Amino acid sequence: MSKDRGKYLGETDKEGAATIGRVVVSDESNTDVANSLELALCTADQQVGSGDNEKYWQIVVETLTKIGWVQQQAEWSNEYVNGQTAGVDNFGDYVKANVEKDSLYRDAVKSVVSKAMVSLQSHEEKLQFFRPFTADGTSGSFVVNAATVTNGVLTMRVSAFAFQCSAPVDDYVISSIKDIEAQVNKLGVKVILSQIVMNNIRSAVEDKLNQETSAYIQSLDI
Fold first, then answer.
1. Better pLDDT: 192 or 84
2. Do 113 and 144 form a contact (C-beta atoms < 8 A)?
3. Closest Cα to residue 39, out of 221, 215, 157?
């Protein structure tokens, strides 16, 4: 995980998560997962930027499939959120509630994600780091990720949330949405890793990642 784009959210030597760019990763220990997500997001940031959520996440998925991940499932959905009736105080709590309802996440993963969001919401230093990747005035997005090994196959679940709001939002993790109306685009992607492909290109992925993140970080105030 690049020191420039990642920050740990858990306690030292305890189960925890990390942020990689705009992603909350429930298990930061798998290097292939961390590098793949970091490269895919950086590529989308540079090619699309903000304003076209569908295109952005299309590039993310396309990049993953180019480096050894095989798409199993991808679902788009849209939801209208009214801050008066949403039942949550901010978009951070909205994402937590959605993860809690997602049957594709194991209970242990849900617990890690929930603790990670609480850690983000309660530490200004972490929020300052996360904010440039996730907030862009009236639009913002961030992602929750989980990876598991089943029958020897590494499977990754990515849940992306993109918000288009009626007014600027300073921080998409903690700012009150009481007076906000928002269109929320949600993407759920399931991919599995071809370990043979990744073994063959791992060094190339790491080299490309170092080049891309160095260029991207120069444009961020973090």
1. 192
2. yes
3. 215
| Residue whose C-alpha is closest to residue 159's, from 36, 51, 57, 31 | 57
Residue 52 vs residues 74, 116, 122: alpha-carbon distances, Å: 17, 27, 30
Amino acid at position 215, single letter: A
DSSP assignment of 193-214 equals E-HHHHHHHHHHHHHHHHHHHH
- The pTM score is 0.82
Give the residues across from 188 on adjacent strands. 75, 159
Boundaries of every domain in the chain: 6-217
In the block, residue with structure tokens 């949405």: 177
Q: Judge contact between 192 and 185, C-beta under 8 A.
A: no
What string of DSSP letters covers 37-95? HHHHHHHHHHHT-SS-HHHHHHHHHHHHHHTTEEEEEEEEEEEEEETTTSSSSSHHHHH
| 3-state SS class at 147 | strand
Q: How far apart are the first and last CA of the chain?
A: 16
- Which token pair is 99? 């993860």
pLDDT digits (tens, 9 = 90+) for 111-152: 888 888 888 888 888 888 888 888 888 988 888 888 888 888
Q: State the average pLDDT over residues 84-93.
A: 88
CA 186 – CA 183 distance, rounded (Å): 10
CATH number of 6-217: 3.40.198
Q: How many CB atoms sit inside 10 A of residue 194's CB?
A: 16
